[in-house]
Design a protein that fits this description.
about 325 residues, alpha/beta, Rossmann fold, six-stranded mixed beta sheet, five-stranded parallel beta sheet, about 45% helix
C-alpha cells in the first residue's frame, strides 16, 4: 500500500513539474524559439501595380516562410520621386525593419540615403542604388547585349530603333546603352528614340517611317506592352524585341506580335527580394549577383523552360 502511494506521489510530482515548466518555458529567452515578426515594406514607382502581380506573390510567399508582415505600397502618381521618399520616411518612422523599393530616381535616392543615420536595410529591384544593401535584377549590360544580338540575327538591313523610356532609371538605361554599343559594333545603324510612355503608343508609327526602321527593341515590360499594342492596333509591320513577362506579353508572343523577349521570373524576383531583406533585418550576411534570364523566341515559346516563365503556375 505504501509502495502504491509512493508511486502516485512520484507521478503527481512529475505532472506538476511538467505543468510548471510549460508555464515558465515562454518566459525563458534562451529557450523560446518564436522568431520576432519582421515588418517589411515594398514601395513601387508606379500608381498601378498590375505589372507586379507575380512579384507580389513571391514577396508574400517569402514573407510567410520567414515570419514577416508585408506592406505593398504604390504611388498616387507614377514616377513621383517626392511621394516615394515620403513613403520611405513614413515606413521607417512606422517601424519598418526592411524596405524593398523600385526606385524612381536612383541617384537622388542615393544622395538622400547618405544623409540618413541608423536606417533599416534597403533592397532595390530593377535599378541599383549606392548606399543600399542589395539589388535584385538581371545583369543589365548582359541583357541589353543579348537582346541586341537577337535582333541582329534577323536584321533587315535598315535602322534598328531602341525605345528609351528610362527617364532617371539607371537600371533600364544600362540595358539600352549595352544594346546600342553591341549593335554599333556590327556597324548596324541605330536610332535611340527618347519617348515618354504616352508617346510610345502615339508617336512610334511616324518615327519608324521617318527613320526607315523595321526593327524595334524595348527594355522594360510596360514599354514592351505599349509597343506591341501600337503594332497590333495600327497593323504595323516591324520586328519587336521586348523585355519582361506578363499575360499580355505572352499573348502577343502567341500571336507573333513580339518576335523575342528577355524573360526572367517575377515570382523569383519578389521571393529573393523579401528573403534577403528579411535576412538583412536579422543581421544575417547575404550575397547576390544577378537574376538569370532567357531570350525566348516566339517559335520556341512552348519549350518546357520557356513555358514556365511565360505561363507561371504559382501554387
Amino acid at each position: 500500500m505504501k509502495k502504491n502511494n509512493l508511486i502516485q506521489l512520484i507521478i503527481l510530482f512529475i505532472l506538476g513539474a511538467a505543468v510548471l515548466f510549460s508555464l515558465l518555458l515562454p518566459q525563458l529567452p534562451h529557450i523560446n524559439n518564436n522568431k520576432e515578426i519582421i515588418q517589411l515594406s515594398m514601395i513601387l514607382r508606379e500608381a498601378d501595380n498590375a505589372l507586379w502581380s507575380n512579384t507580389r506573390l513571391g514577396l508574400e510567399q517569402a514573407s510567410n516562410e520567414f515570419d514577416a508582415e508585408l506592406r505593398f505600397l504604390t504611388l498616387s502618381k507614377t514616377d513621383d520621386y517626392n511621394e516615394q521618399i515620403e513613403l520611405v520616411k513614413r515606413e521607417i518612422d512606422g517601424g519598418a525593419d526592411a524596405i524593398i523599393i523600385v526606385p524612381v530616381n536612383p541617384d537622388k535616392f542615393s544622395d538622400w540615403l547618405e544623409t540618413q543615420k541608423n536606417i533599416c536595410p534597403i533592397v532595390c529591384i530593377e535599378s541599383p542604388v549606392e548606399n543600399t544593401d542589395l539589388t535584385i535584377s538581371p545583369d543589365g549590360e548582359l541583357l541589353g547585349s543579348k537582346l541586341a544580338e537577337a535582333a541582329r540575327h534577323e536584321w533587315r538591313g535598315n535602322t534598328i530603333c531602341l525605345i528609351d523610356n528610362s527617364g532617371l532609371r539607371t537600371g533600364i538605361k544600362t540595358r539600352i546603352d549595352a544594346a546600342e554599343k553591341t549593335l554599333k559594333k556590327y556597324n548596324i545603324p541605330v536610332k535611340r528614340l527618347v519617348l515618354s510612355d504616352n508617346q510610345i503608343y502615339t508617336n512610334l508609327p511616324s518615327l519608324l517611317l521617318q527613320h526607315n526602321s523595321s526593327t524595334v527593341i524595348t527594355f522594360e515590360p510596360y514599354c514592351t506592352e505599349l509597343a506591341a499594342k501600337c503594332k497590333e492596333n495600327n497593323k504595323l509591320d516591324f520586328k519587336l524585341y521586348g523585355t519582361g513577362v506578363s499575360t499580355y506579353i505572352a499573348g502577343c508572343m502567341e500571336r507573333g506580335t513580339i518576335n523575342a523577349i528577355a524573360a526572367w521570373s517575377d515570382y523569383a524576383t519578389g521571393y529573393l527580394a523579401a528573403q534577403n531583406a528579411i535576412l538583412l533585418s536579422r543581421d544575417k550576411k547575404v550575397t547576390f549577383n544577378s537574376l538569370p534570364f532567357r531570350i525566348i523566341y516566339w517559335e520556341d515559346m512552348y519549350e518546357t523552360e520557356n513555358e514556365k516563365l511565360l505561363f507561371p503556375v504559382i501554387s
